Amino acid sequence: MSLPPDTRAAVHAYFKSLGSTDAQAVDAETLHTGKFDWVGDVLILKETQKPVTDPSVREWFETKAPHLLPTAIVVDEADAAFTGKNLTARMAYTKAHGMDEADRVARLYGLHAVSDTRAGVRPAEMPGEKKPAKGDTNPWSDIPGVTTDPKTGKYLPAALNKQFGLARANVTAAASIAAAAGAKLGDIRPPGRSRRVA
User: What is the CA 169 to chain-centroid distance, rounded?
Assistant: First the structure.
């Protein structure tokens, strides 16, 4: 007679395969093992009756328990921190997201850790990449008619409002997003822009 499969270990392994941290995987196995069952040798989520290999299982946890999954990576922010040698941007990223998350993302960029002083290389596919919503742009970007006034070169009121909203929500993250466009908080125009007359 064979032993039944170890559900706790399988749940832990499943969350690790999604990119969850050790702490997240331990939380998942401790609190959510009862939500899983075996059909033969296939681990399924009881609620949906789908195997864990089905994308709907991850989607279910994204809705019900997103804290167990890796944080979505905002590419502009990560690129600003890890593709160059800007240690200030890396430290801002670390402050905004925590050391474990910063180290995880640094490794995606081919670095040993966030403290690695080399320039990283953006991976071809970013796991958990947060895609901007359609029409959503970095409010510090230089896009005439969208974020900037083509005549003056200054940020438009809509872009400024979005900048202020991001800064109110999280100053460090807003600084990183601005840095991704080469700008800084408080700029009235994108960098390198002077008054323009049409």
Answer: 16
Burial class (CB in 10 A: 0-12, 13-18, 19+), 193: middle
What is the C-alpha to C-alpha distance for residues 8 and 19, in angstroms, rounded to an integer?
A: 17
Task: Determine contact, residues 148/138, Cβ cutoff 8 Å.
Answer: no
Interval 180-190: pLDDT, tens: 888 889 898 88
* Alpha carbon 161 to its chain's center: 23
Q: Are 50 and 56 in contact (CB under 8 A)?
A: yes
Q: Tens digit of pLDDT for each residue in 129-179?
A: 554 444 457 888 888 878 888 888 888 888 898 888 888 878 888 888 888
Residue with tokens 């399988």: 10
Give start and end residues of each alpha helix (H) in 55-170: 55-64, 75-82, 87-97, 99-108, 157-169
Reference 69, options 131, 108, 23; nearest CA is 23
Question: What whole-number distance in Å separates Cα of residue 15 and Cα of residue 21?
Answer: 8
- Per DSSP, 189 falls in state S
Cα angle 123, 125, 130; round to 5: 105
